[in-house]
Structures are given as structure tokens and as C-alpha cells.
């Protein structure tokens, strides 16, 4: 099936797709596909089908027109009661996106959660305690030294009486405070004093988000186990500003909260699993690099599927254009050398799944300045050096995880290459996929596409899985990992 390029859609359509996808627990591409599929299937005649597609696409921009074909599954449970009895402590920071926290409270309460809000002094410049209190139907907490709230050490009680802390919007300032252990107002003190899980939904100007200080703080918070949802790319409230920094939509935040509080069977609870995903970029000079076509879709889907089964997932991602999976701790890297360092730092772990398409070679000496094109001199020759083999390094490591899984993307001799890799790299399984044009998997192929056809190669043989969506491959692999870890004593 052809891939759908979401970024080419209008912002209005994108926003709606994002919300529907979050409601249905699927990707935006899957949501769009489901809608188009629903429009195409089972209609009489070509003209009727075109009409139906037009109607569906019109409904994307005007949801009031359409009530039927929007959900991916036909028997989707009602949203009512999905968070029944859950207590959310919502910390609202001082950013323009604070207005979205009003909708977030509504969405959480309609799912049965109770919401108690803490507002920073800056947050009260953007939205009032009156409206937050009216929507949450509770007192709004603002002051660390409030005589009424603090007679029984209110900041500790606020944490004790919550199932989950959600910071939305998480300002650059709140992130910096928590990353550095500051506790000089109620919000930061509650965050430091809690033993509950914390989910942050950052929102800020793209320059603030990409500032090295904010990147450092995010990395520290992720290492400390704080989960993140968003931010997304898009238009900023400030005119003429666009980029990464928009707060995730309320329904995306709700989906992340639901995933974090999901109490269904969690066979991987208490297990730490490392996943690598995406390509690596190996610099030639400050502006050029060697890369590959990996999109990170399969690796990110595996990280999300493992998190759904309760694992503490540490995702190490190369540069990709997709969002960090909810409920997963993600570290972003560029090069193979950086990926290796982060992965080894994350050991020990119960399992490691190496999905990333790590470059085999890098340039031996990346130029410090942009290589200039000089007339008459011809192209520069690149001297290459071998990159570290991260899978083999972990497969033979003194702290080797109980289960080590590698991916092999091959264009020829798929099985025999995977069998050699299995032995040489000390892996338990190799998930082999044919990334050649002959794989038969749609025009976008396996790399970058949404579907995959894999074989699981182990010492006991080769298991062939049918072609399926990358999310389905991920769910099946996560179940296999859960099953294997059940029988491994580590
Ligand atoms: C109009 C305006 C909009 C702002 N928007 C943001 C924002 O979106 N994200 C952010 O991190 N800071 C933003 N700031 C800066 C914060 O309000 C400021 O850093 C404040 O100290 C944050 O306090 P808090 O973290 O205690 O809520 C904004 C400031 C102004 C005046």
C-alpha cells in the first residue's frame, strides 16, 4: 500500500487526524488509511466509491458531517470509564499552551479520572484558577506556604493522593528545575517529593526546545525515568514561528496517560529492555553525512509494544521524523559511536532488541569545516573506517542481557546471512527482513514503509511470519519476548 505523507496535509486535517488517532490508539497514517479504506470498501460502482471518498475526506475537515467511518476498529470500547477511579495530579506550567490544560481536564474527567491541579505563578498569568477549579471541580493548589494546605505537609499529601503526575504544559523552566533538583515553589516541590510516575508534555518555542540546556535537561529527566509525550512539530502561537515545540494535543496526552495507568496483564512489568531504532548519521563535514533509509517505524513500534506489556523500555533512537513513543524513555543520538555509548551505559538489562540500521562505516576523519568545491580539483575521496558493532558488543558483553535480539536487513541470501549473524554476534534471535525491491512489500518497501515480512531465525530453526503491519510485527515480537523472558531466570 502506498505511504501517506501526513506532513503534506493541511494543519487543520492533521490536528483532527492526530486526535482521532490518539482516541483509537493508532498512528495518524493508520487512522487516515482506515478512513480511506472504510470509504472504498463495499460500495457499489466506481462513481459511488469516489463519492464516498470525497465525503470521507470532507468529513476530515468538518467532523460534524460524519459519524461513522472514523474509527479503526469496529468494536472500540466507549471512552467513558476508561480511567475510572484514577487520580491525576496535573501540574500546569506558565506557557501559552496552558489553555489546552482546560480541555485536558475535561477529557480526563469524561473518562472517569479525578483531576487535581497545581498551578505555577506563571501559569496563572495564562489561565485562571477559577476556570481550572471549575473544570476540575476541586480546589486549585498554587502556594507552597499556604497555611490551609500545608498544616499536614500538603505537597507530600498531593503526591500521596495521586496515581500519576502529569505536567502540561511542561515549561523549559519546570524541566530545568526538576532535572536539577530545585524545589522553590509548590509545583517543583511536589515533583521532587513524589514517588509516583511522572509524565511531561513539554511546550515551548522551538529555539527553547532545541537549546542545548533544554536537551540536556530532557536527557537527564528521561534517565531519571520521567516519561514524555510530544512535543509536536507545527505552527507556534507566536506569529511566524514554526518548528518542534508545540504541546501534544490533549487526546494524545490522554492516550499516554491511559498507557501509563493500564493495569491489564503486564507480563513485562519490572523488566528493563533496551531497544535501538532508526538510522545513524555519520558526518562527512559539519553539513553533510552518510545515512540510510531507515525510518525508525519498526523500532519505535517495538518499543511501544514492549511498554504496553509493562516493560521499562529504554529506546535509543537515531535521527527520525516520528514522535517518541508514549510511555518509553527515549535517548536521541546521531552516530553509531554515540548509540554504542548510550546502549552500554544502559546495561544491565533483561533484554535488548537492536532494530536500528547502524551504519557499518563512518568517514575516518570527518572534516571540521565544510569541504569546499574547488574548480578543477574534482571530488574529494572519502576514507572510511569501520563502526563499532553494537549488537556483537552487547551479545558478548560481561553484562549481556538474558535475551539479545538483532535485526538483519538483507537484499540477498536472507536466511544464510541471518544464520551467520546469529552465531557471530552472540544473539538469541535474528529478525530477518528482505529489504530488496523484490520483497513484494508495496512501492515504499520495508525501509520507510508501514508493512514488514519477517523471519525469526534462531538456533532451533526459522519461523516465517506472514506480511503484516509494523505494529502487528511489534506486538507479536513483544509477546514472544515476554514468553522467552518468562522462562529465563536472570
Ligand atoms: C507570553 C509568554 C509566553 C510564554 N510561553 C512559554 C512557553 O510556551 N513555554 C515555556 O517554557 N515558557 C514560556 N514562557 C516563559 C515562562 O512563562 C517563564 O519561563 C516562567 O518563569 C515559567 O514559570 P513556571 O515554569 O514556574 O511555570 C512564556 C512567557 C511569556 C511572557
UniProtKB/TrEMBL annotation:
Sequence positions that bind CTP: 360, 370, 388-391, 407, 421, 425
Source species, domain of life: Bacteria
Record function comment: Catalyzes two steps in the biosynthesis of coenzyme A. In the first step cysteine is conjugated to 4'-phosphopantothenate to form 4-phosphopantothenoylcysteine, in the latter compound is decarboxylated to form 4'-phosphopantotheine.
Gene name per UniProt: coaBC
Organism: Mesorhizobium captivum
Recorded family membership: In the N-terminal section; belongs to the HFCD (homo-oligomeric flavin containing Cys decarboxylase) superfamily. In the C-terminal section; belongs to the PPC synthetase family.
Location of region: Phosphopantothenoylcysteine decarboxylase: 1-272
Cofactor binding annotation: Binds 1 FMN per subunit.
Record-given protein name: Coenzyme A biosynthesis bifunctional protein CoaBC
Chain spans, region Phosphopantothenate--cysteine ligase: 273-490
InterPro entries, sorted: Arc_rbn_hlx_hlx (IPR013321), CoaB-like_sf (IPR035929), CoaBC (IPR005252), DNA/pantothenate-metab_flavo_C (IPR007085), FitA-like_RHH (IPR053853), Flavin_trans-like (IPR036551), Flavoprotein (IPR003382), Ribbon_hlx_hlx (IPR010985)
Annotated EC: 4.1.1.36, 6.3.2.5
Catalytic activity: (R)-4'-phosphopantothenate + L-cysteine + CTP = N-[(R)-4-phosphopantothenoyl]-L-cysteine + CMP + diphosphate + H(+); N-[(R)-4-phosphopantothenoyl]-L-cysteine + H(+) = (R)-4'-phosphopantetheine + CO2
Pathway: Cofactor biosynthesis; coenzyme A biosynthesis; CoA from (R)-pantothenate: step 2/5; Cofactor biosynthesis; coenzyme A biosynthesis; CoA from (R)-pantothenate: step 3/5
Keyword Ribonucleoprotein: no
Obligatory cofactor(s): Mg(2+); FMN
Domain Antitoxin FitA-like ribbon-helix-helix, first and last residues per copy: 2-40
Keywords, alphabetical: Decarboxylase, Flavoprotein, FMN, Ligase, Lyase, Magnesium, Metal-binding, Multifunctional enzyme
All residue ranges annotated as the DNA/pantothenate metabolism flavoprotein C-terminal domain in the record: 268-483
KW Iron (keyword) present: no
GO molecular function per UniProt: phosphopantothenate--cysteine ligase activity; phosphopantothenoylcysteine decarboxylase activity
Domain Flavoprotein: 86-258
Amino acid at each position: 500500500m502506498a505511504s501517506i505523507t501526513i506532513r503534506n496535509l493541511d494543519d487543520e486535517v492533521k490536528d483532527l487526524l492526530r486526535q482521532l488517532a490518539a482516541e483509537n490508539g493508532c498512528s495518524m497514517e493508520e487512522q487516515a488509511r482506515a478512513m480511506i479504506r472504510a470509504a472504498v470498501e463495499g460500495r457499489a460502482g466506481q462513481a459511488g466509491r469516489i463519492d464516498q471518498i470525497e465525503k470521507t475526506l470532507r468529513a476530515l475537515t468538518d467532523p460534524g458531517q460524519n459519524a461513522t467511518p472514523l474509527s479503526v476498529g469496529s468494536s472500540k470500547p466507549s471512552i467513558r470509564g476508561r480511567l475510572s477511579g484514577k487520580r491525576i495530579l496535573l501540574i500546569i506550567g506558565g506557557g501559552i499552551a496552558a489553555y489546552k490544560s482546560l480541555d485536558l481536564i475535561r477529557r480526563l474527567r469524561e473518562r472517569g479520572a479525578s483531576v487535581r491541579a497545581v498551578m505555577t505563578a506563571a501559569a496563572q498569568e495564562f489561565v485562571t484558577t477559577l476556570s481550572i477549579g471549575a473544570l476540575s471541580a476541586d480546589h486549585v493548589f498554587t502556594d507552597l506556604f499556604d497555611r490551609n494546605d500545608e498544616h499536614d505537609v500538603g505537597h507530600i499529601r498531593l503526591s500521596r493522593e495521586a496515581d500519576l503526575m502529569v505536567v502540561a504544559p511542561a515549561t523549559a523552566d519546570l524541566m530545568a528545575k526538576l532535572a536539577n533538583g530545585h524545589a522553590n515553589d509548590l509545583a517543583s516541590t511536589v515533583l521532587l517529593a513524589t514517588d509516583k510516575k511522572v509524565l511531561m508534555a513539554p511546550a515551548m518555542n522551538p529555539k527553547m526546545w532545541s537549546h542545548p540546556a533544554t536537551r540536556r535537561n530532557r536527557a537527564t529527566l528521561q534517565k531519571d525515568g520521567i516519561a514524555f509525550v510530544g512535543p509536536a512539530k507545527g505552527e507556534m502561537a507566536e506569529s511566524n514561528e514554526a518548528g518542534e515545540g508545540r504541546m501534544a494535543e490533549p487526546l494524545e496526552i490522554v492516550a499516554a496517560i491511559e498507557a501509563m495507568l493500564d493495569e491489564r496483564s503486564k507480563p513485562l512489568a519490572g523488566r528493563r529492555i533496551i531497544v535501538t531504532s532508526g538510522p545513524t548519521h555519520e558526518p562527512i563535514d559539519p553539513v553533510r553525512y552518510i545515512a540510510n533509509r531507515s525510518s525508525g517505524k519498526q523500532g519505535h513500534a517495538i518499543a511501544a509494544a514492549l511498554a504496553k506489556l509493562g516493560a521499562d523500555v529504554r529506546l535509543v533512537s537515531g535521527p527520525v521524523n516520528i514522535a517518541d513513543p508514549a510511555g518509553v524513555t527515549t535517548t536521541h543520538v546521531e552516530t553509531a559511536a554515540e548509540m554504542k555509548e548510550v546502549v552500554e551505559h544502559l546495561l544491565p538489562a533483561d533484554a535488548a532488541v537492536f532494530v536500528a540500521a547502524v551504519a557499518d562505516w563512518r568517514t575516518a576523519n570527518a572534516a571540521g569545516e565544510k569541504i569546499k568545491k574547488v574548480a578543477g580539483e574534482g571530488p574529494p575521496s572519502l576514507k572510511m573506517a569501520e563502526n563499532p558493532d553494537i549488537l556483537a558488543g552487547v551479545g558478548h558483553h560481561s553484562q549481556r542481557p538474558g535475551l539479545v535480539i538483532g535485526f538483519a536487513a538483507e537484499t540477498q541470501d536472507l536466511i544464510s546471512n541471518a544464520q551467520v549473524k546469529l552465531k557471530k554476534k552472540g544473539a538469541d534471535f535474528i529478525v530477518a527482513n528482505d529489504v530488496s525491491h523484490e520483497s513484494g512489500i508495496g512501492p515504499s518497501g520495508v525501509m520507510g514503509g508501514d508493512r514488514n515480512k519477517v523471519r525469526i531465525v534462531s538456533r532451533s530453526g526459522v519461523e516465517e511470519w506472514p506480511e503484516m503491519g509494523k505494529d502487528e510485527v511489534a506486538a507479536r515480537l513483544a509477546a514472544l519476548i515476554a514468553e522467552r523472558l518468562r522462562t529465563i531466570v536472570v
